[in-house]
Amino acid sequence: MTQAVQAYSYAGASTLADGRLGLSTSGGTALSGPHTHPRFFSGLLTQAAPAAAGLLAVADVALARYHQPRPGWTRDPVVTCDGDRLRFESFSACGGVYARLDVTALDGEVLDRGTTNVNVNGPLRESLRRVGGRDPLHLGVGPDELTVTTLDGAVVEKKVPLPTRWLRGFAEVQVIAAGFDLRAELNGPQAVRFLRSLPRRARGAVWAAPAGRDLRLAAGPGRGAVCLSGTGRIVTLIPLLRFAKALRVYGPAGDSEHQASAWELELPGMRYTLAVSPQPWRGFSGEGQVLEDLATDEAAGDADLIGMLLNFEPAVEIGLLADRSGLPPARVRAALTQLGTAGRVGYDLHDASHFHRELPYDRDQVAELNPRLTAARALVESGAVRLEGDHAEVTTPGGVRRVAVGPGSCTCEWWFDHRGSRGPCKHVLAARIAARATAETPV
């Protein structure tokens, strides 16, 4: 498995003492430009206890490997400050669980807007567990300049491998979530009752089906039901239930087996969201949902244009970007997918909109994360695709593949195994790229 290496360098360890939570930062992009140790916020968390529990939950996901657990490197969470909230994000080591805490209960000064990694170490985790009561907690995201000048050897540095599939999954989950719909909403007591009723160690899939204003466990997929494969993967919701005001459950249209889902807890002044892949062994990286948008010839150029218009907004408005860029909404959406593969946008289910963030990873590391698309373009360039109306023949070393371009079906083993559930195969992608090129060629 190919992988890049992420180097973290913190001016000091994050600490929590005397009611002051200082989160140390490493690298990132801000409106004011790139920074080694950016400062984004200084002020009060007006809901200290749920914020501490939520931050700990995000950190727990970053530590976890839900499929085939084993010790490994810790990938630090990232935080984005967009002016009216802080978004903390993490992704599990197995690539199948995404977590985000959106904190809006803030009272203080926004020093800059942007994204950075934050250090969540062992002692800080223990301190977060002890936060309680209703007293506000002072939060600083980024080191205070006066403190930095007197650290003398307190620099925290580490290098962490970032497998390609992990980076791809972080991008894929955003695109998959954009296709989800709200399936159910429960109030606090109902949410507590339902989540505590889930079998803790279920390895297979269970389905949560709407039943009036409640949810019930169903024996299989059905209308409106949401799939949850591996109930232990949402265990980080449980410590937050004492603060829960509501639970919202999201899933894709249709009632086929083994689908991804998202679980959002409404907390005082914040929201905690978990997205889980269709199966524990099946991370988000192989879902292939970004490939169609990335395969268009204009996607890269459109992404450059749209990227210049992003400004760390809390919500990216497609209509506004279309007006400013002169592009139709469909091409704006495709450009956002392209930006998502580089970690530059996420998706907020509650707001039903993208948001701007810049994952602090080298863009060269995420430039070649879709081998199916690379293989498809190579097939087109080698002349392996022969179009026949709505069908195509794609010649490969393993034989000739017959492709139905519109439906996206193929005679290859990938299509036979997945039937399009994990995105198009390389032969379908190649046929569609060739079809578009033929349609755009002047007669």
TrEMBL record:
It holds the Pfam family SWIM. Keywords: Metal-binding, Zinc, Zinc-finger. It comes from the Bacteria. Residues 401-436 form the SWIM-type domain. InterPro entries: Znf_SWIM. This is SWIM zinc finger family protein. It comes from Nonomuraea harbinensis. The lineage of its organism: Bacteria, Bacillati, Actinomycetota, Actinomycetes, Streptosporangiales.
